[in-house]
Amino acid sequence: MHQEIVFSKYYGQSGVEGLDYYKKNDAGYLALTKSIDMGNEKVLAEVKDSGLRGRGGAGFPCGTKWGFIPKNSEKAKYLVINADESEPGTFKDRAIMTYTPHMMIEGAIIAARTIDAHMIYVYIRGEYVKEAEILEQAIAEAYKAGYLGNNVAGTGYKLDMTVHRGAGAYICGEETALLNSIEGKRGEPRIKPPFFPAAIGLYGCPTVVNNVETLAAIPSIINRGAAWFKEFGPEKNYGMKLFCISGHVNRPGLYERPMGYPLMKLINEDCGGIWRGRKLKAAFPGGSSSPVLTAEECNINLDFDSLAKAGSMLGSAGIMVIDDATCMLRVAIRTAHFYQVESCGQCTPCREGSMWLKDLHLRLERGDGQLGDLALIEDICNNMDGTTICAFGEATAWPLRSMVKKFRAEYERHVTEKRCPFGSRAH
Amino acid sequence: MPNIVVDGVQVEFKPGEKIIDVAARAKNVIPRYCYHEGLSIVAQCRMCLVEIEGQKKLVTACSTPCTDGMKVNTTTDRVKKSVAGVQEFLLANHPLDCPICDQAGECSLQENSYKHGNEDTRFDFFRRTYIDVDMGPSIKKNMNRCIHCTRCIRYCDEVGQIHEMIAEQRGNNTAIVTIDDKPLQTAYAGGLADVCPVGSLTTKDFRFKKRVWYLKTAASICDGCSQGCNITVSHDAGLIYRLEPRENQEVNKWWMCDEGRYGFHHVHSPSRVMSPTDLRTSEMKSLNWSEASNAARELLKSARSIGLLVAADATLEEVVALKKSFPQAEFFSFSIGVDKSEDDKATDHLLRRKDKSPNLRGLEEAGFKPFSSFDPKNFDLCVFVSAGKVRLPYGIAKLAKKSIGMGLFFKEELTGLNLVLPACSTYEKAGTFVNQQGKKQCFAAAVQPVGMSRPLENILSALSDGARKVG
Q: Minimal CA–CA distance to A370: which of A405, A415, A336, A424?
């Protein structure tokens, strides 16, 4: 399988985040110059041709999204960078912003010019304090070097970029909630239609919301062409990708691999297998929102389409590996607790369902549950699935439903033995 | 006109209209909580989910605009399951204290439970609890019953136009509060009880007074100011319990102010004069109606000139009767706030007017002169007509040589009057008002006249012989 390190060359090193380093070692800001020469239409065509799919979770084609921006609109246009990386098990954007912030900034400048935006907002999660500082410093460098400001790279194009820090809400990673948050409103997702912020986005204006990793991929696509980008990964799932692996493996961390990389290879070869000589029990392939995969199902390639076909999703590529000494019900409790705390409370099914699910799981873990609770969990998940404004309802329902379905016997043992077979206690 | 098909019934729509409104025209009321015609759309209760043929996901009928040829199903198993599911979620944390809840009987949650809900509950955990909160003079909040539809928040922002209610916390801990727990500032706070689909926000005025299913209603007009808001009077056994706005897009839309809403307690005031009263001697004497008519005739007989000061809440019908009974008298109108209707103006962004009487325009059209030109000394006899809420200037009767009071008087207002003939307040009679727009609005009587009060027309016709002779 063809692969090449694009993003993570300098990860873990110090002093690599500066502009000079980026220019010297990574052909920094050459893509910007090239994109100016190419003109907006060619840039858009190149990005479309590369088949780059959004790295935030939904996997929507990036070029198509940019193409939605109305050309003749008199309204201001905005580019918003979603750096609110809050999905449990995900830490890829953090690395990009810490070690190669200019890669993202360059991609953002190219994107902003392509969609004719004069303002870029970076919405960064509140807990990323250090990352926000690095980013602000990098933006200041870019201003000084003339890549941002009133005269972008000598073209006379005006472009500003500012960092907006979140206040610690998971839901603000949902793009419309994120826009509300920037506007100073409650971080609650907006109703659809409009289906894309490209029509009515930030301050009612056409807006593109892109993930950090998506934009960081833009400079290399411009520099080396769509054809080069398509050398990596299977059809419709091109490119190199940052995989975040956490959990019960010997070497957890951030791995840059081509799309479509086999999950088992990643676990066994790259991460050194399951820790303490134990066996693989299950894995979340794309953060805690993705339906869980059993050990048998883990023989799968990591790309959007393969995982969707298997009833799960690549999401943010936050892979969480679970060994066979772990009680799945405890995993479910942690998941349910997270979603109960983070629900914005706007829609009824999500607000009430997330709490109910957590209570049910806790009761099962205590050994006080009944067999009927299993069917009840499934039914509550069904009632939450597809009935809410944003995907949060599904993000809660899918993993919990998949766990009760796939590990039913383990759940039932909690009821029949009136205790946790793994000896863990509910918190 | 473009069409949509709702459950097999074809309905026309205007571009931009939402499914929920179009379906309602075909008598298909899709269940809803957060949606209110007068407020912005948030689509967050998820109760109005419907299925559109050709679309994978269910959509909310309140937020989805119609497109030509759209086929909407509201009765498929999928829709039924999702509606029952939402209903179950809403009841999960609801206290189910209907037996002591004022909303019981007119509660959306109850109605939808009967129509769409499950028969029993599967939720057996502790429910969220809060203590009741006083939200100012008008509203009491019971957060336990709240279903987080946020109608109240939007009502304050959009109708009251003061940003004073917010959702605090998030998720399951979301609480609807006023900012910093301050009392509500809006003059339209009572409307919060109307828009609240459950018993979370209730008016202190009506709280614990009556089970709603005992109430009868009458369509009436508020007599609090010249706007003439359309209202519904709820009453039982001759007592008025509450006033609520009645939709009229041209006058008051769905709303009314607190001043009007609570402006009915004078009707049942214990100090109201409820029988004809003779005050000619130092001793106050209650009369029966034939004695009272004789007393009135006596007063009228001796008068060569008569002036009538009529409070501007007399109906057009009463005006006609007065004119007929006193053909040669002079007529003056009296209103609070303004002297002439041309001085009338709006005092806020929504409904309230400077002219605090409901029919000044009607009186002026009938040729009544303004109060400023009225001098009681010019007449042998003054007749003071107080037909509703407007109070005549205190002690004005003392300036008159002789005087009769007709209408609604209170014991503390009797100084200077020689005779009082009790008549009806607005809610005890039917009639017509002309509001500030010049709109003639008829209303029905809600309750029977209190005590020995009689409709003004009846009193006048009993006097008419005497009056004609005098006139």
A: A415
In Å, how far is B6's CA from the nearest CA of chain A? 20
Mutate to test the interface with A, among B45, B56, B83, B88 (most CBs of A within 10 A): B88
- CB-based contact, B41 to chain A, within 8 Å: yes
A169, A345, A388 ranked by CB distance to B46: nearest: A388
Residue B129 lies in a domain: no
How many CB pairs lie under 8 A apart between chains A and B? Answer: 92
Mean pLDDT over the full length of chain B:
94
Residue B470, pLDDT score? 33
**B90/A contact by beta carbon, under 8 A:** yes
Calculate the alpha carbon distances from A4 to A243, A258, A260 in Å: 14, 8, 14
Chain B residues near residue A351 by CB distance under 8 angstroms: 89, 148, 171-172, 174
Residue A349 in this model has a pLDDT that exceeds 80: yes
Q: pLDDT > 70: what percent of chain A?
A: 99
Residues of B in contact with A343 (CB under 8 A): 170-172
User: Which helix H or strand E contains A202, and what residues bound it?
Assistant: none
Ranges of residues in chain B with a pLDDT under 50 are 466-471
Is B172–A383 a contact, with Cβ atoms under 8 angstroms apart? no
- For chain B positions 227-286, those within 8 Å of chain A (CB to CB) are none
Distance CA B276, CA B46 (A): 59
How much is the pLDDT for B462? 86
Is the pTM here over 0.95, yes or no?
A: no
Instruction: Name the DSSP class of B369.
Output: B
In CATH, what number does A19-229 get?
3.40.50.11540
Option in A171, A353, A359 nearest B89 (CB): A353
In this structure, what are the phi and psi dihedrals at residue A21, rounded to the nearest 5 degrees? -60, -45
Q: CATH no. for residue B37?
A: 3.10.20.740
% chain A with pLDDT above 90: 93
pLDDT in tens, B387-442: 889 999 998 999 999 999 999 999 999 988 999 999 999 999 999 999 999 999 99
Q: Which domain holds residue B38?
A: 3-75
Of B49, B81, B171, the CB nearest to A343: B171
**DSSP reduced 3-state for A83:** strand
Domain boundary (B42, B75, B108) is at B75
Query: Where on the phi/psi map is residue A294: left (φ > 0), alpha (ψ -120 to 50), or beta?
Result: beta
> What CATH architecture is A328-416?
Up-down Bundle (1.20)
Distance CA A329, CA A119 (A): 46
Chain B residues close to A336, C-beta within 8 Å: none
* CATH code of B315's domain: 3.40.50.740
Residue B331, in any domain of the structure: yes
- What is the total count of domains within chain B? 2
Indicate the CATH number for domain A240-323: 3.10.20.600
pLDDT band at A73 (very low <50, low <70, confident <90, very high): confident
